[in-house]
Write a structure and sequence with these properties.
By secondary structure, this protein is α/β, with parallel strands linked by helices. The protein contains 3 helices and 7 strands, in the order βαββαβαβββ. The longest helix is centred in the N-terminal third of the chain and has 14 residues, at 7-20.
Length: 140
């Protein structure tokens, strides 16, 4: 399955990552799944709720933030398709922490690498059904 992002959505993710640097940022992907495509229509930016001293390499989305995103999605006839977050000064490859805390095998997981305050790369991943790792997802 391919993940479709508009230039606006891609820019929002990278700009959010740059604004949050040197900490990790996070948010939820909202859109529709149809004809073998995940189409992201909008983002719900979320405040990283992890303890302050750990935000440079961890993120946390609270249940309240998740409920807010689900409400936003429903109002538009959409659904939550996944999560995005940043990796400050690290590659856009899921960490072991990311795998351990990934919620759903049906979601897309976008990671933006932010190096020295500038977005460097943006990649998407899906969690394998056995939760043993991620496979890269094509972004269009």
């Amino acid at each position: 399955m391919a993940l479709y992002l508009t230039n606006e959505v891609r820019d929002e993710i990278t700009e959010h990552g740059e604004r949050g640097y040197p900490n990790e940022i996070c948010g939820l992907l909202v859109g529709k799944e149809e004809d073998g495509r995940r189409v992201v229509n909008e983002l719900v930016a979320v405040e990283n709720s992890f303890e302050a001293g750990e935000q440079f390499h961890r993120f946390l989305i609270t249940p309240e933030a998740m409920l807010k995103a689900e409400r936003v999605a429903r109002r538009g006839g959409l659904t939550v398709l996944g999560v995005y977050h940043s990796h400050p000064n690290a590659p856009a490859i899921p960490s072991e922490y990311d795998r351990d805390h990934a919620a759903w095998t049906t979601w897309s997981y976008i990671i933006v690498s932010v190096r020295d305050g500038r977005a460097a790369e943006l990649r998407a991943w899906t969690l394998r059904d056995d939760r043993g790792g991620f496979d890269e997802e094509e972004i269009k």
